[in-house]
C-alpha cells in the first residue's frame, strides 16, 4: 500500500484551499441574486409597516415668476381668501361684549378690592356659553397662567378679558401685516412696510395735522426705526413675528388715542412732533439746502461736540452719495446716537470704532478715537487728560473676557456701552463722565433746596 499517495489524496479532499468547481463569476452572480432577494424582501416589509413610504410628501413649492401672471394672481387670491377666513375666526366687538357680560354674570364673590374674580367652575360655565370662537381661551393652562395666588383659587376677570383682547389684537394685526407680505414668506420688505404705514396714517387721529407733502418723510422716519432695530444684518426684510413682538407697533398704534399728553408724544418716535423734530433738525443742518448733509454740516449735530475722527468714520462706513449723507442714512445715525444703551445702536457704533475691522477694540483703537477728544480739549483751552488713565477705566468698567480686547458682546454684557462710546466720540459725553461726581452732588443740593 502506498501510504504516501493515500495521505496526499486525503489532504487534498479536506483542504480549504481546494479549487472550487464553481467558477468565480458564477459565485458573484449567485451572491448578487441572494443580496437582491433579501433587500427586496426587507424593503417590502418596511413598506407594509409604514404606508407613508409609498408617497413622499411635497415640501417645496416654487414661487411663480414675474412673467407668470396667472399663477401670481391665483396665489394672491388664495392668500387673500385664507386671510379673510382667519379674520372671520376672530372675535368681533359684539362677541367680545357678550364675553364680558358672561364673565361679569359668573363672577365669584367676594370682591378682591374693587376687582371682580372668577373661580375655575365659573370659568368652565362661561366656556360652555361663550361660543366656539372663545373656547380656545378657556383652557386650564391659561387659567393657571393668570392665577395670582388668590386664596379662593380665582383669577381676575379684568386680567383675563385683557388677555383675550390682546390675543385678538395680535391676530388682527398679524393678518393686517400679512396682507402686505407680497412674497407670502412671513416677512415684510422695506417697500411693504412703507405701504402699511402710509395706508395707516389716515386711521391715526394724532397725525391728522400732517400735510400730505410730509407723508413720505414721515413714512421713511417710521420705517427706519423698525429696520434699524429689527434688521441688524441689513437683509432688507423683517419677520412679521418680530414686528409683533418688538413693541414698536404699540407705539405706532398708540396714535389712535385722540388725547395724548405732550410728554407722551415727545417720547414716541412715531408721533407727529417727534417726526417733525427729527426732520427739522435735518433741514437746519443742511446749510446749503441741497437735501444732503456734508461732514461739516453733520458736525453741528446736537451740541456740536462729536469728534472729527468719529465723523470721518461715519462717512467712511455709512452709505453716502458723493461724500454726503441722505435723510435715510441720517435717521440711522440719529437712532444710534439717541439709543446708545440698545444692542442695535452699540452694534452700529462698534463697527465705526473698530477702525482696524478686527471684531474687537484694542488699545490702539481706543487711543485712535480718544486722540479726537484730546484735540477738542486743547481747542477749548482745557488740559488734555492722559489716555493711560482713561484706558484703564474703560477696561475696568467693561471687564472683558480677554483683558486686552473688548468685543461687542463685552460692551453689551457690561451695561457700560453708552458710557464707553460717550468717552470716545463726544467731548460733552466725556466731560459728563469726568465730572459725574460733581454733577451728582449738585443734583443732590438742588433736590434739598
From TrEMBL:
SUPFAM superfamilies assigned: EF-hand (SSF47473)
Naturally occurring in which organism (per UniProt): Phallusia mammillata
Descriptive protein name: Serine/threonine-protein phosphatase 2A regulatory subunit B'' subunit gamma
GO biological process: cortical cytoskeleton organization; microtubule cytoskeleton organization; regulation of dephosphorylation
Name of encoding gene: Ppp2r3c
CDD domains associated with the record: PPP2R3C
Cited Gene3D superfamilies: EF-hand
Location(s) in or outside the cell: Cytoplasm
Record has Acetylation as a keyword: no
Annotated region (Disordered), positions in chain: 1-28
Keywords: Calcium, Cytoplasm
InterPro entries: EF-hand-dom_pair (IPR011992), EF_Hand_1_Ca_BS (IPR018247), PPP2R3C (IPR039865)
Record-linked PROSITE patterns: EF_HAND_1
A Gene Ontology cellular-component term: spindle
